[in-house]
Specification:
By secondary structure, the chain is α/β, with parallel strands linked by helices. It has one domain: Spore Coat Polysaccharide Biosynthesis Protein SpsA, Chain A. Helix content is 30%, strand content 28%. It has eight helices and 13 strands. Strand 4, helix 2 and strand 5 form a beta-alpha-beta unit. The longest helix is centred in the last third of the chain and has 13 residues. The chain is globular, with a radius of gyration of 17 Å.
Length: 250
C-alpha cells in the first residue's frame, strides 16, 4: 500500500460519440467467459499498484456505474463518488472538460498523492502505476506515465529532455516527431493546489495548458516511459473494433 495515495478516475463524459444505451465505461470486455467493463481495468491497475482509496468523478446520469462498483469492496478498494456539475461550456469529453472533472474531486484528494487514470482506457502492464511510482522521487510534483503511439493527433504528446524532465505538452498535434503520449499521471499535493487555483480562480479549462503552466511555474514534472507498454482508448467505434481485434489475437 502506498501511503496517502488516492486513485482518481474521471468518468463524467456524456459518451455522445458512441451513443451507447449505457455508460461507455461499462462497455463489456469478455475474457475467459466473464464480463469485465472497461472501467474496471483502471481500478484493477490502481489496486495492483497498492492504491486502495479510489474516487470516481461521474455526472448525474451515471447511476449504473455506482450500481456496478458499489463501495469497491468486491474490487479490493474503497470507492467514493463525486458528481461533476454540468457547465454550459462542457460539450465534449476530451481535455476542455477534463480539468474541471479532476478538480471536482478537490476536497477528497487534497493533501494526498493522486494516481489518475482514465475510465475508458486499458493500460498494460497492469502495474504501470507502481512502475512510475518507483521511478519517481519525493521532489517530483508530477509524473507523466508515457506510452508510444502512432496517432499523436489524439493525445497529449510529451517532449522531454535527456534526464526525463518534461519540457512541454503538445496537445493533439496534426504533425509531430514526438512519439510518446501521456496515458496516466501521478501527482503530489502541490499540483493539486495548482490545478485547483487554475480552474477556480483563473478559469483555465484546458488540461494541457494547465500542465504546461505548471512546468513554466517551476513545478517539477517528470516522465516515466513504460517499457513495452500498451494503451488502448475506447473513445470511438474504430478504437473499439481495434480493441476487439487485439483481444482475439491475444
Amino acid at each position: 500500500m502506498i501511503e496517502d495515495a488516492v486513485g482518481l478516475i474521471p468518468a463524467a463524459g456524456r459518451g455522445v460519440r458512441l451513443g451507447l444505451p449505457y455508460p461507455k465505461e461499462l462497455y463489456p470486455i469478455i475474457r475467459d467467459n466473464r464480463y469485465k467493463p472497461v472501467a474496471q481495468f483502471a481500478v484493477d491497475s490502481l489496486v495492483a499498484s497498492g492504491v486502495t482509496d479510489v474516487v470516481c468523478v461521474i455526472n448525474e446520469t451515471k447511476h449504473q456505474l455506482i450500481g456496478y462498483f458499489g463501495d469497491g469492496h468486491r474490487f479490493g478498494c474503497h470507492m467514493a463518488y463525486v458528481v461533476q456539475e454540468n457547465r454550459a461550456s462542457d460539450g465534449q469529453s476530451t481535455s476542455p472538460g477534463l480539468a474541471h472533472a479532476l478538480d471536482s474531486a478537490y476536497r477528497l484528494v487534497r493533501g494526498r498523492t493522486v494516481f489518475f487514470g482514465m475510465a475508458d482506457t486499458i493500460m498494460a502492464p497492469q502495474d504501470v502505476f507502481a512502475q512510475a511510482w518507483r521511478s519517481s522521487g519525493p521532489e517530483d510534483d508530477v509524473v507523466l506515465v508515457l506510452f508510444p503511439t502512432t496517432r499523436p493527433e489524439k493525445f497529449g504528446m510529451v517532449r522531454t529532455d535527456a534526464e526525463g524532465r518534461v519540457l512541454e505538452i503538445v496537445d493533439k498535434p496534426r504533425q509531430t516527431r514526438l512519439t510518446q503520449m501521456w496515458g496516466s499521471i501521478i501527482w503530489r499535493p502541490r499540483f493539486t493546489e495548482y490545478l485547483h487555483d487554475e480552474v477556480t480562480v483563473h478559469g483555465v479549462a484546458d488540461f494541457a495548458c494547465i500542465l504546461n503552466g505548471a512546468i513554466h511555474a517551476g513545478l517539477r514534472v517528470t516522465a516515466h516511459a513504460v517499457s513495452g507498454g500498451t494503451y488502448l482508448d475506447l473513445g470511438t467505434y474504430e478504437e473499439i473494433r481495434e480493441l476487439d481485434a487485439s483481444l482475439r489475437e491475444a
